[in-house]
Every structure is written in structure tokens, then in C-alpha cells.
Amino acid sequence: MTSTEKVDLRGAAATLLMTLYMRRQDARSRRPILGDPWAEPVWEHIEHDVHGLWQLTGDVSAIVCRAATLDGWTREFLADEPTGQVLHLGCGLDSRPLRVGVPSTCRWVDVDQPEVMAVRRRLYDLPGNSEQISGAVTDDDGWSAVDPTLPTLLVAEGLFMYVPAEAVHATVDRVVSGTPAATLAFDAVAPWTVRA
Ligand SMILES: C[S@@+](CC[C@H](N)C(=O)[O-])C[C@H]1O[C@@H](n2cnc3c(N)ncnc32)[C@H](O)[C@@H]1O
Q: Smaller CB count within 10 Å for the chain: N or C?
């Protein structure tokens, strides 16, 4: 991991700091739910205006339960399909590929916007069998990297609420038409929560 670096993320990209902050709060708690060992060291290497993040304290349990649930589904997939592929859409600065222990036989693809992937590559030592794709989930480039012959899990945590509805539908359509055996694991929220 590099030394401390200033991170200037705007818009939806900046929301990754919220989830990272909450995983770190959980990891520091007396009885962690997710217990992400990477949250604290990654957080410590980021210089960012974190003003107001303390207001998320009440959401920590819900957010880390969400992450733990998606980790569980991911581990189940890896156990069932050790030679499959996982697309980690809108991965932000999440340590999921490290937490779940990706088998060397599995293909793991992290996808997020270019400014996020640049930071992710610098802050994490990611598994050698993982790939990083810079781009929006709506771009064709990322989708051309999908191997349509492999059993596939797409994990999209905290993503679809920041993407226009038609792009969510397009993503689902691509999964259905582009992969013969795919599972999409995602979370959704009521529309007003994004504004809040
Ligand atoms: C709330 S963060 C969640 C990050 C990570 N999944 C986590 O749980 O910590 C939302 C993430 O979605 C990414 N994102 C938003 N719109 C996107 C898009 N159209 N394509 C790819 N990533 C996107 C942002 O850059 C950000 O990293």
C-alpha cells in the first residue's frame, strides 16, 4: 500500500467513502459484524474532506449487514463454481475479493469509474487473478471483457441507486442475454434515500 494520498472524488464516486467509513467503524467496534481488516488501513491512507461522515453512524449496522450478506452469497458462488467468474460492479474501495478468498481458478473482475479504479489500484494489493476495468457499467468495454461461457456472478453493492433506471434495466438485459448462467446480486433502496 502507498503512503497517504489526497483523494478528490466527486458525485457518485465520492459515495464510496461513506461505505468505506462505515466498514471501518464496524471494524473498530467491540463486536464487529463484517470485521473488514482492510477498512482501517485503506482509510488511513486517504486524505479527503470527510466532514459530516459521522452522521452515518446510525447506518453502520445496516450497511455492514448488507456487505456481509453479499459476501456470503459470493462465497457460496465461489464454492459452487470455483472456475467461474465474478464481476464486482461499482466496487469502489471495497476489499471484497480479499475478504472472500477468490480461488486461483476463478476469474474476478472489478469494475468502477476510472478515477475510482486509479485509487483502488494504488491502495490495494489485489489478487493476481483479479482484473480491473475502468469504466461505467453502461460502457461496452467492460462488458466485452465478460466471458460468456463461464458461470457468472455479478455483485453490485450500493450501485444501482446511483445509476439511471434505464441503465439498471440495460445491465439486467445484458446479464440475461450475454451470459447463459448468471446470477445478479444487488441491493436496492427507496428513491428518497439517495437524496437523503
Ligand atoms: C456507494 S459506492 C459503493 C462502493 C462499493 N460497492 C462499496 O460497497 O463500498 C458506489 C460506487 O458505485 C460507483 N458507480 C456509480 N455509478 C457507476 C457507473 N455508472 N459505473 C460504474 N460504477 C459506478 C461509484 O464510483 C462508487 O464507487
A: C
